[in-house]
Structure formats: C-alpha cells, structure tokens
Write a structure and sequence with these properties.
This protein has two domains: about 120 residues, Nuclear Transport Factor 2, Chain: A; about 300 residues, Rossmann fold (3-Layer(aba) Sandwich). About 40% of the residues lie in helices and about 20% in strands. It contains 15 helices and twelve strands. Strands 5-6-8-7-9-10-11-12 form an eight-stranded mixed beta sheet, sandwiched between helices. Strands 1-2-3-4 form a four-stranded antiparallel beta sheet. α2 packs across α3 and α10 packs antiparallel against α11.
Length: about 450
C-alpha cells in the first residue's frame, strides 16, 4: 500500500511544474477579463465563453450583473489573486476584487483552451479567502489520497514553485474530527499557515483525520469495542504518508519539521521517537497538563462564561475524572467516558508521558501561545517553560489577543468564536518564518 501512495505522490511531483507554468497564463487571461469588465466590453467576455455555455453568459447578462454589483457596492478599486490552480484540463482563478464598500471574489473556470466555463461573484465574507501574506503565484497545491485499508484520507502537499528540494513542515491537527484545513465553517487556520509558509519557501503537508469523514464506520468499530487510541485515530495513517513524503525529490528529507496544534503538538514527542528524521517541532497551543485535566479547566471556565449549561459541563467533568483512573478498564461502557469515546483511548493517554519525553528531545522546539486560549490556558505555557528550563534550544512566543485557533479577538473566548470569519494574523506567520529561517537542522547529540 505504501508503494501505491509513493507512486501517486511521485507523479504529482511532476505535475507541479506544469501547474506553476500555467499560473502565469491563468493570471493573464483573468486580468484580461477583469479589464473588460472595467471598460464595459462585455461582448468580448461573452465571446470568450465556451460555445455551449454562451447562453448563460451573454453580454447583456454580464452587463446587468456588473452594473448591479458596482451600483450597490461601489466602484472597482483593486484586485489580487487568492487562487490560481490547474487540475487536469481545467484552470481556475479566484480573485479578491475590492469594491468601494464591500469585497467580492470573482471565480473564473477555464478549459484547456482558456475558454470560460463558468464565472461568478461571491461576497468575500461568505467564503474563505487567502489573507494578504499569501502569494498564490509562489506555490502549487497537490491533492493526495492517503489509503490505509478502508480509509481514504484527503491530504494536501503545498510546494513552492521551483525544483527544490524544499524544507518540509508537517501539520499535525487538533483532537477530534479535524480536517486538513482545521476547518470551522469558512475559517481554515491550517490552510492559512500552509499557504503562508509556502509563500516563504517551505513545503507543507496536511491531512484529514479518519473521524473527519469516516464517523459512521468508526461508530461501528466503537460498538464492537475495538481498540481506539491516538494511533488508530491519526498516527497510523500519518505514518503511511510520512514514509512516502521522505521519498519525494522536491522534499529535503534532512530538513523536516513538525507543527502540532493542541493535542497534535502533545503527540510530537511520541512521533519523534518513532520517526526520528524530524529535526524540529513547532507547538501551537499545546497542553502541558493531562488531556482530562485540560477538559476540567475548560468546563470550569465555560461554566462561568455560559452558566446556563453548568449542569452539562459538570457531567463532562465527572466523566473526565472517571477516565483518569489508573485502573480504568478499557472495556468500560462508552457513555461513562468523555464525549462517549472508547475507554481504550483514555487508557492510552493516561500512560503517555508527553512532558517527560519532551524533556529528553534533542530537537529544537518553539511554543506559540494565545492569551485568550481557554482550551489551553496560560498556565500550560508557564509549565512548559518550567519543565524545559534546562533545554537550551527552546523558544516561546506569546500573543495576548489570540485564541486557541490563533485568531484575534477582544472579549472572553468561547467555542462559537471559532466560526467568526477570520484568518491567522500575519505577525504569527512572520514569527514562524523567522524561527524556521534561523533553524539549525543539525541535531546535537
């Protein structure tokens, strides 16, 4: 199975060069269409449409749409590209068009002859839009399927334009049904990070967890009381991908870094033991305390912020305490465990000494902490400093306004805030790039 994954990745590596070359052509064609909108040459746009679709994009309809758009939201000011992609015979551009009063995204799909197949305007606040620090002309993205038995997991390898080899950052996601983008509706924090790092010369890999799309199948396993730990949840699948990534010519296997968010960061010491070719770790909002202790802290906080749900939170606290029993039976009924997750999951976590293992790591580490993170509090940040005080190659960054997904805010953070449209701030990306740029990949024995 790993050979299949490798062949897929290998072939995609060659596709990236043609995709990079196409970006210039896609941009040129899209710029021409935008200039025709601005000058009112709607017949030229219509003539550019593939013959079978021209009835949907007549000059009259295009003129009506443009006049309605600019009449309501103001004149065109400027534009920048947030997507330039090739997939098979199709070429796609998404352009953030700044009007006087509200930004819109213009999406254009071309065929291989660069005839228009579709064209539409979408309010920018309703979709994810790459932030200003992302330069889509500097990288390509290849979608990859990682197969492990019945599981087919979507992943993305973002690679800078050029031959490489490039340093690689692997994003390891948070606990729960986390997808490759770390999605909260239209917010995509992992995609922001990947695009930001790739704009600065770093290849980035990110992938779905099983629970993101295979929940029903996992419920069947759960009902059969099959073992479920962090290995079945994520690590087994991740390792298949990693064993293939190190064989890709455009990846510098001697410059591989792991970026873990939340529980993903907590697992970094374990992963480094099993995959020692990683040369450094980036820890975003990572717990020092045990997972269940974190849960108790969270629910005590939420009980104060949203007191109407205190009874519900108290029940979860009771389950968390029960799951910390050192003699916990792995066949304990699910409804007695936090989130109804199998007891075997908590037994594994109870035995995992992540802090002790972190103190023994030779690899450099960097910790990023949000001051408004209620899921991983400042207390954990300070505990890490204390536990790793003898380790010389560790740095720490603290951001007062950021929450657990590293989005800005002003008031007390809650889970619902994660769905308020935003992006990873540029200063966090800048700090990540600065740290990576000065990284010494030679691990001191």
């Amino acid at each position: 199975m790993r050979n299949i994954i490798f062949l897929l990745l290998f072939s995609l590596n060659f596709i990236s060069d043609s995709s990079a070359q196409n970006k210039t052509k896609i941009k040129e064609e899209s710029d021409q269409i935008i200039s025709w909108f601005k000058s009112g040459d709607f017949s030229k746009i219509s003539n550019k449409v593939e013959f079978n679709y021209r009835s949907y994009f007549t000059a009259q309809l295009l003129e009506k749409d443009w006049q309605e758009l600019t009449g309501t939201y103001g004149k065109y000011v400027k534009h920048r590209y947030v997507t330039l992609e090739s997939a098979g015979n199709y070429n796609m551009a998404s352009c953030l068009m700044q009007l006087e009063f509200l930004p819109f995204v213009l999406n254009i799909n071309f065929n291989e002859k660069f005839e228009i197949l579709s064209l539409n305007f979408v309010p920018a606040h309703k979709i994810h839009v790459n932030p200003n620090y992302v330069d889509v002309e500097k990288f390509t993205e290849q979608k990859i399927i990682v197969r492990n038995g019945v599981y087919e997991l979507e992943s993305v390898l973002t690679t800078p334009v050029g031959n490489g080899p490039f340093p690689l950052v692997v994003i390891v996601g948070e606990a729960g049904p986390t997808d490759k983008d770390g999605s909260y509706e239209n917010n995509r924090p992992y995609k922001d990070i990947a695009s930001g790092l790739a704009s600065n010369g770093y290849a980035v890999f990110r992938m779905d967890k099983r629970s993101a799309n295979f929940g029903l199948y996992m419920v069947q396993q759960k009902n059969n009381y099959e073992s479920f730990t962090c290995k079945e949840d994520y690590l087994d699948d991740l390792y298949i991908a990693l064993d293939s990534l190190i064989k890709i010519p455009s990846i510098d296997k001697d410059k591989m870094v792991m970026l873990g968010h939340g529980q993903g960061g907590m697992l970094i010491p374990y992963i480094f033991k099993e995959k020692p070719y990683f040369k450094a770790g980036m820890m975003l909002g990572v717990n020092h305390k045990r997972v269940q202790e974190m849960m108790i802290d969270q629910y005590n906080y939420l009980s104060k912020v949203t007191p109407g749900k205190k009874a519900e939170y108290d029940e979860q606290i009771e389950k968390a305490i029960r799951s910390m029993n050192k003699k916990l039976n792995p066949l304990t009924q699910h409804h007695l465990m936090p989130y109804d997750v199998q007891a075997s999951y908590w037994v594994w976590l109870n035995k995992y000494p992540h802090v002790k293992m972190a103190t023994k790591l030779k690899q450099p580490l960097v910790f990023f902490q949000g001051g408004r993170d209620y899921q991983v509090s400042d207390e954990n940040f300070e505990l890490w400093k204390s536990s790793l005080k003898k380790k010389k190659n560790v740095e720490y960054f603290y951001y007062k306004k950021l929450n657990h997904i590293f989005f800005e805010g002003e008031t007390e953070s809650t889970y619902s805030e994660y769905f308020v449209k935003g992006n990873i701030p540029d200063y966090l990306i800048n700090d990540m790039v600065s740290w990576l740029n000065k990284l010494d990949y030679t691990i001191k024995k």
